[in-house]
Automatic annotation (TrEMBL):
<feature type="domain" description="N-acetyltransferase">
    <location>
        <begin position="1"/>
        <end position="154"/>
    </location>
</feature>
<keyword id="KW-0012">Acyltransferase</keyword>
<dbReference type="InterPro" id="IPR050832">
    <property type="entry name" value="Bact_Acetyltransf"/>
</dbReference>
<dbReference type="Pfam" id="PF13508">
    <property type="entry name" value="Acetyltransf_7"/>
</dbReference>
<protein>
    <submittedName>
        <fullName>Acetyltransferase (GNAT) domain</fullName>
    </submittedName>
</protein>
<dbReference type="GO" id="GO:0016747">
    <property type="term" value="F:acyltransferase activity, transferring groups other than amino-acyl groups"/>
</dbReference>
<dbReference type="InterPro" id="IPR000182">
    <property type="entry name" value="GNAT_dom"/>
</dbReference>
<keyword id="KW-0808">Transferase</keyword>
<dbReference type="InterPro" id="IPR016181">
    <property type="entry name" value="Acyl_CoA_acyltransferase"/>
</dbReference>
Length: 154
């Protein structure tokens, strides 16, 4: 598996993996209508810029199978998604480890994230801590319960 910096050309597959992962993984924790609103429609116009600026993608045999990003100013991890047909193979954990190394390289000492309810056990297995439930407000105007989590890097 290769983890590489994403670019604009990856935007459509990044969006597709996001939607597939949300639909497959979140359905037992969030209402169907919320998931449909969260994943419906086309990506916003600025999405290609966001992907080009901060995303990383995991590839197996030149096929993108996972995504993730970390804000190198705030340490916020976001958009860690794995294609539903590729879950449980360690791809997500490798993406997290890659993002941690990038964060350490720029001097960050802590990462933070807003986990969906279904993903919290995964993040805990990667060393993140947190149990506080908060409201996540997505750029698409959706509000959903999430768990605030953090991890010390040093």
């Amino acid at each position: 598996m290769l983890i590489r910096k994403a670019n604009r050309a990856d935007s459509s597959i990044v969006w597709e993996i996001r939607n597939l992962a949300i639909t497959a993984q979140c359905s037992k924790h969030y209402p169907f209508d919320l998931i449909m609103k969260w994943t419906s429609g086309e990506p916003p116009e600025y999405f290609s810029d966001v992907v080009d600026d901060g995303f990383w993608v995991a590839e197996i045999d030149h096929e993108i199978v996972g995504t993730g990003k970390v804000n190198l100013q705030t340490g916020k991890v976001d958009a860690v998604f794995v294609h539903p047909q590729r879950v449980r193979f360690g791809i997500g954990a490798k993406i997290i480890k890659h993002l941690e190394h990038i964060a350490i390289d720029v001097g960050l000492i802590e990462l933070n994230l807003e986990s969906t309810l279904n993903a919290a056990p995964f993040y805990r297995s990667c060393g993140f801590q947190g149990i506080e439930i908060a409201k996540y407000n997505s750029p698409r105007g959706i509000e959903l319960d999430c768990i605030l989590m953090s991890k010390k890097l040093l």
